[in-house]
Structures are given as structure tokens and as C-alpha cells.
Amino acid sequence: MNISKIFGWFFCLTITGVGSHAQFKDPRPKRKQPNIIVFLVDDMGWQDCSVPFRDKLTVSNKRFRTPNMERLAREGAKFTNAYAAPVCTPSRVSMITGMNAAHHGVTNWTSPQKGVNADAADNELLPAPWKTNGFSPVADVPNTVYATPLPQLLREAGYFTIHAGKAHWGAIGTPGANPYNMGFMVNIAGHAAGHPQSYLSEENYGNMSGKATVQAVPDLEEYYGSGTFLTDALTREALKALQEPVRRRQPFYLYLAHYAVHTPLQADKKYHQRYIDMGMDEAEARYASMIEGMDASLGTVMDFLVSKNIADNTVILFMSDNGGLSLAPPRGGLPHTQNQPLRAGKGSVYEGGIREPMLVKWPGVARPGTVVPQYVMIEDFFPSILEMAGVQLYDVVQQVDGRSFVPLLESPATADSARALIWHYPNKWIPEGGPGINYKSAIRQGRWKLVYDQRTQSSELYNLYDDIGEQQDLATRYPEKAKILRTMLSHQLQQWNAPMPILKSTGKSLPWP
Which region holds residue 373: left if phi is over 0, alpha if psi is between -120 and 50, else beta? Predict the structure, then answer.
């Protein structure tokens, strides 16, 4: 068992051995345990909001209306280089375990059906031996990664733990399918599926006689036929669940993981006409209405905290699980243009598929209006939230890869250009492929990013400071830099024993970078 205690950005100690104990003295004054809210959006792109995550407003920022994200940015810190995995389940497993996707091995989205590989078929390659059944808090479940989940640690530390919305950690018939097994005391509408059958109460969120599929959203019967969009229903139920810990003055952890803005793209009628009047096509108007409905949920949550006089002791962390969808259809416009100037979108290791809108409000710690340029990764949420909760000593069965970003909230100008971020997607997401999609890996260190094609064993090199759109491949101009990054990527993937695709003709895995 690894006993880990993480105080900050530069200090991390892991001790191995059953029954071992570690005692450390944190030099910083002890804070009152804050309430903690993770507000996780599904498939939201870096610019799908009116908050500029660059140094100026972009065309995309002007298309969307998210006043409550603007409010959160004013009251907290904006992370301009925040990252996640190219698709959903790997990111969600990374957040709940603190492990990089290449390390935990859940490299693709998981099918809700146990034992079903979600990879598309390929003529030359067999699927990599990835963890097709997802994450498990219980050992020895086939094709899962076993780890200690974050909510369990928070519950043990005295938190009232609530899950609302999308779970999508594991397949039906495995422990990972049920949020209660993760340490949540309340579960609202979370199960094995990765998207809702319907956002509409008029369709009972998919629970229609003779028409329901595994994607039908559970638990919301009281809203059937009421005209309540799914995003709003989840928000209402989450706030109902918060009444109990607020009444008891018990610190709470709310994981509000919206199904929005994942497909199916369906109009939130409260906001849809605004975007039609702006001249958007129907698909984009639906998408924008779902974005605004998500933002309204954030505002409702923030208003609730104020009304209960607990806003000053509540941390809010806003994040998306992967880049914005750029397949058209179902999106409007030309394919892979929706996240420009970022390249591509969901499913890609280019910036459009992995760079996320991230905001953190922590009154008394994060100064209002702060901008944090240091790059961070979604596995960093695990040690960061534990540090926020004052959990200084914790037992976990996994090796935690994430680093706490709490020191960045305290000193936002801190820079660590030596840190390397890793992405690994040894899977086939869609049959037709696309830019940076299918069988790709990547590494970022400082300004430099290398993209590796597992099938062709070729590399591309980009300077993100000068070329955020990844249009100028510099691999031939700077071969030594490309070689260094490729070697670093290869070493880390081998250390983690990351899964690789298998060549049909030989039955052997493709070589490391």
C-alpha cells in the first residue's frame, strides 16, 4: 500500500509498505475544512463560453453567453492552460484516482455493457489491451483499474459526499458503475452510461415505455412531463441534497457532473430562440442553448451558497472532461473548425481535443480575477482537492501522478516549465478518423509539444507559445528537441506499461515511441 502525503507543487513523498505511517508538519496555518464543489461539464470546448481563456475575446467567446462563468472568473482564478484526456471516461477516472490515463489504462470511453470494447474496428490493428470495464474501487474485477477513489477519502475525512449527473466510470455489473461504491452518500442520476438518451422531460429523459435504452437517465421521475430540461432537473436535485449537510453544518463535497453538453444536441427552450435570432444554424443554436443552460445551473448553485451564507467557505472548481465536439454533423459548420484557433476537437490529442476551460474559486486563498498560466492536468484535481480538504495523510492503493495546484492559487505566477504532461490514446474512437484522432500520443513540456502517431511511428513538433493552432510542424527544424521529447514520452509510457495497439499481421504490440 502506498501512503502518500502531498503538501504542494514541489513536495511529494511516497512510502511503500503495509502498516507504514508517515508524519509531516505542514508549515502553513490550518484552515477550516471548506465545502467543495466540482462542477464538471461534458464535451465543453475551451472557448465555448463568454470568458476569454486567451489574452483577448475571440470570435467564439462572442457567440456564447455564460455570465455566471464570467462571475466565477471575476471571483476566483482562471487557468489558461488546463488539460484533460481526449475523451470522457479516461478523464473521469484520472480525476477520481489521481492517475494519468496512460497509467490507469482506461484509455477510451467505456461501454455501459460489461466486456464490450468500445474501439471501432480497424483493418490493420487489433485493440490495445486497455481496461475496457473502467475503474473499480474493488480489487480483482476483470479489465478494470483498481484504485482508492477520491470521494471515499473525503467521506472518511468527515465530508458529506453527493454525486449528481453523469458518472461513467465503469460498466454495468462492475462496482465502478455505481457511485455509491465510490464513497458517495447520495447519488442522483449517475450510472454506467456516458450520455443521456434525452434531455427532455417530455420524453422522460429517455424512460419511455418500449423505447428506453441503457442511456435513459434514472432517478428523475418527478420531473417527467414538467418541461424541465435535464440540466435544470439535476441542479434542483443537487441543491435539495445539499440541504442536509448545510443544516448539520457538515462540510460537503458535491460532484455535479452535468450530462450537458454531450450529444444528443437538444434545444433548451429557455435560451434557444436567442441564438436562432443571432443567425446560428439549428445545430449550433441548440448547442449554444445547452451551454447557456449549463451556465444558468452554475449561477443557481452560486446563488444558493450566498443564500445559505456559506459562499465564503466553499470552493468551486469548474472543468470540462475533454475538448469540444468538432464532428459535423452533429455540430454545425465545417468539420473540426468549431474550436478554432485550436486544432480539431474531442477525440484528438491536438489542443482542440484536450485544452479545457478551468476556473477555481476559493475565498481567502485564490485572489479574485487571478490568471494562472501554468499548465495543469485533470489528475491534478485528486491531490488538490485533498489538500483543500485538509487531508494531509491518506492511504491509497495507487501511485498518484497528479500534482496539487493549490500553490498556484496562492502564487499564480509560479512556473514549472520542466513538468511534462502525457496523453496516450491507443484506441480507435471513430472509423473515419480525423486530425489527431485515433492511435495518437502526445507530450507537452514548457512551450514544446510533440504529437506521436502510433500507426506510422512519426512525430510532429509544435511551439505552443507561437503556434497555438499547431499549424507549423517544427520536427525537421528542431530534430534534437523532437528526439528528447519522444524519448521522454517513450520512457514514461514504458514505466507505466501503457497499452499499445496490436498489429494483426504479427500479433505483436506496436513499438514504443
Answer: alpha
CA angle, 296 then 60 then 465, to 5°: 115
Question: What residue spans of 189-252 are helical by DSSP H?
Answer: 230-248
Q: How many CB atoms lie within 10 A of CB 488?
A: 16
On whether the CB atoms of residues 351 and 83 are closer than 8 A, the answer is no
Chain centre distance of CA 411: 24
* The model scores a pTM over 0.90: yes
Task: Please name the residue ranges forming H helices in 458-503.
Answer: 479-495
Question: Rounded to an integer, what distance in angstroms lies between the CA atom of residue 214 and that of residue 205?
Answer: 12
How far is it, in rounded angstroms, from Cα 417 to Cα 313? 32
SS3 342: coil
Nearest to 154 by CA among 246, 36, 290: 36
Q: What are phi and psi of 189, to 5 degrees?
A: 70, 15
Count of helices and strands (H, E) across the chain = 12, 20
Instruction: Give the separation between CA 185 and CA 257, rounded to whole angstroms.
Output: 16
Residue with cell 485533470: 378
pLDDT in tens, 378-400: 999 999 999 999 999 999 999 99
CB 97 within 8 A of CB 382: yes
DSSP assignment, residue 165?
E
C-alpha cell at position 389? 480538504
For residue 347, the number of C-alpha atoms closer than 13 Å in the C-beta half-sphere is 19
Could you read off the pLDDT of 405-464 as tens digits, one per residue? Answer: 999 999 999 999 999 999 999 999 999 999 999 999 999 999 999 999 999 999 999 999
Phi, then psi, of 187 in degrees rounded to 5:
-130, 125
Query: Which cell numbers in the block locate residue 155?
Result: 467521506
pLDDT tens, residue by residue, 236-263: 999 999 999 999 999 999 999 999 999 9
Residues 179, 170: Cα–Cα separation, whole Å = 10
Paired residues of 188 in beta bridges: 164
Which tens digit of pLDDT belongs to each residue from 143-166? 999 999 999 999 999 999 999 999
Interatomic CA distance for residues 84 and 252, integer angstroms: 25
